[in-house]
């Protein structure tokens, strides 16, 4: 088993890598695992720098990335879709609620993972947040910093997909449905 892959920064992909390694304990393998933003992933696959890449994007940027793949004659397959949830501190007043609405987060700090918004300026991101009624935000590009901030701030949230229980427990975070 030998491959070079570029993936988005995500705890889910780390868990998949751990599982792959545990299933191949007796086998020989050489894995080169890189975390990159979507534009870099497309570029690395197109240039042959990696064997394959995995992209993750929001609905509003899906057409952009599909066009980037077509332009470079790259083939793609949809692996999965997932609903975004709110990631908050377990100590947040919102943590006891099953479901939240955007309105309940109006005064909270929106933490944004910087690599999830590649190619977009902070003014573009701010315009999206203003449409949501959010007027306080922090854009962070490093995952450890992002989770640490969320863990220590009872009035902060970020959008996320599935996270392994080990990550949620390590940082004392929880995922909530949002209307």
Layout of secondary structure:
Blueprint: E1 2-7, H1 11-23, E2 30-35, H2 38-47, E3 52-53, H3 62-71, E4 85-89, E5 99-100, E6 109-113, H4 122-132, E7 137-140, H5 143-152, E8 156-160, H6 165-171, E9 173-178
Parallel strand pairs: 1-2, 1-3, 5-9, 6-7, 6-8
Antiparallel strand pairs: 4-8, 4-9
Structural class: alpha/beta
Number of helices: 6
Form type: globular
Query: What proportion of the residues is helical, as a percent range?
Result: 25-40%
Q: How is the biggest beta sheet arranged? A: 6 strands, mixed
The oligomerization state is single chain
- Give, in order, the helices and strands: EHEHEHEEEHEHEHE
Structural account:
With 179 residues, the protein is an alpha/beta fold. 34% of the residues lie in helices and 23% in strands. It has six helices and nine strands. Strands 5-9-4-8-6-7 form a six-stranded mixed beta sheet, with helices on both faces. A three-stranded parallel beta sheet has the order 2-1-3, with helices on one face. The longest helix is centred in the first third of the chain and has 13 residues, at 11-23. The radius of gyration is 18 Å and the shape is globular. The chain starts with a strand and ends with a strand. The mean pLDDT is 85.
Observed structural traits:
179 residues; alpha/beta; six-stranded mixed beta sheet; three-stranded parallel beta sheet; 6 helices; 23% strand; globular
